[in-house]
């Protein structure tokens, strides 16, 4: 008896695999992108209160009205856009479920979906599960620049959708307004949906501003804005995300969401209501928290003379390992875990042709200072410096 063919077309998550490797060697897990940081106290308090005071049953499938209202309020505060909580906002089990429900709701088997690479590894299984065909457009290192000709060629294949992750995991790229306008221009011309993944919308460095595709001229009706509480409020285990889209798109996405998960966890949705109302100072502090850690790790790699791709956003850092004499990305990552107990992600897992990422590995720096100083010490030991 055979299992479904579709499961043969993608691999188990390399990030989750490296997390298990970290556990095997009782190492530090810099592979999976979770912060070593608690959610804000008032947000936790509200979730606890919700559990103790009866918020333990299913919520309406597309999300608690209070949370949809709160998401709408936050969207108008930060994006300057109006989204109707009744017809344009859906609460999901994290951004991950939001992306799959959106792909299922919008993409037919055989239709193409543009993906920029290096990419967040969940996108490909998501596209495969709905029978779509990924069309890759390369972001060229060291600056992760977008080649206009390559983009033009990808659009000439008339894609149904494009996934846009900014700030981007794993590269740390923040798409510029000009790049986004160029993408938007093609999407309008070809009637292509944009599915955004804005999970790192509040983690940008060096004074950069987050640009929202939905806010660009003419893009509201064909953009699905996806975000969630995992990274902005350090609550990756709560599984609360959301989708903002035109009612026609929302109703297709809601059907897929309903039959996959019914609803996001109710008490954590209640906690998320409080998160949505946090003041501007909270976000300023969050950025500073990660900027300090980014700068620390940049310095560590500079001292070790290891070339780094300087992240402009999110909380990952890719480094070049091809000059270190420790083999390719997988050999490097396994040796690092075995010898000094540091788990990182091999670069090949972010490319559709693994050979394109063999010269890189990714570190997550959303960690406590004690952890980061251990990372420094272990890296020095590993490299014999
Ligand atoms: C780019 C990107 N999108 C989505 C996710 C997952 O988000 P969520 O926890 O909301 O499912 C991650 C987690 O690392 C991510 O890096």
| Shape field | globular
In total, the number of strands is 14
**Secondary-structure element order, as H and E?**
HEHHEHEHEEHEHEEEHHHEEHEEEH
Q: Specify the biggest β-sheet.
A: 8 strands, mixed
| CATH architect. name of the largest domain | 3-Layer(aba) Sandwich
Topology:
Layout: H1 14-24, E1 28-29, H2 41-52, H3 65-79, E2 89-92, H4 94-106, E3 112-117, H5 123-129, E4 133-140, E5 145-146, H6 148-156, E6 161-165, H7 177-190, E7 193-197, E8 223-228, E9 241-244, H8 247-261, H9 266-276, H10 280-303, E10 308-309, E11 316-320, H11 329-340, E12 342-343, E13 345-346, E14 360-364, H12 369-382
Parallel strand pairs: 1-12, 3-4, 3-6, 6-7, 7-8
Antiparallel strand pairs: 2-9, 4-5, 8-9, 10-11, 11-14, 13-14
Helix pairs in contact: 2-9, 3-9, 4-5, 4-8, 6-7
The structure holds pyridoxal-5'-phosphate.
Main attributes of the structure:
385 residues, alpha/beta, Aspartate Aminotransferase, domain 1, Aspartate Aminotransferase, domain 2, 2 domains, 8-stranded mixed beta sheet, 4-stranded antiparallel beta sheet, 12 helices, 15% strand, binds pyridoxal-5'-phosphate
Q: What report would you give on this structure?
A:
- With 385 residues, this protein is α/β, with parallel strands linked by helices.
- It folds into 2 domains: 5-32 and 281-383, Aspartate Aminotransferase, domain 1 (Alpha-Beta Complex), CATH 3.90.1150.10; 42-278, 3-Layer(aba) Sandwich (Aspartate Aminotransferase, domain 2).
- Helices cover 41% and strands 15% of the residues.
- It is built from 12 helices and 14 strands.
- The strands form 3 sheets. The protein has an 8-stranded mixed beta sheet with strand order 2-9-8-7-6-3-4-5, sandwiched between helices.
- Helix 5 links the parallel strand 3 (112-117) and strand 4 (133-140).
- Helix 3 packs parallel to helix 9 and helix 4 packs parallel to helix 5 (123-129).
- The longest helix has 24 residues, at 280-303.
- It is globular, with a radius of gyration of 20 Å.
- The structure holds pyridoxal-5'-phosphate.
- Residues 33, 94-96, 120, 165, 169, 197, 199, 228, 230, 236, 241 line the site of pyridoxal-5'-phosphate.
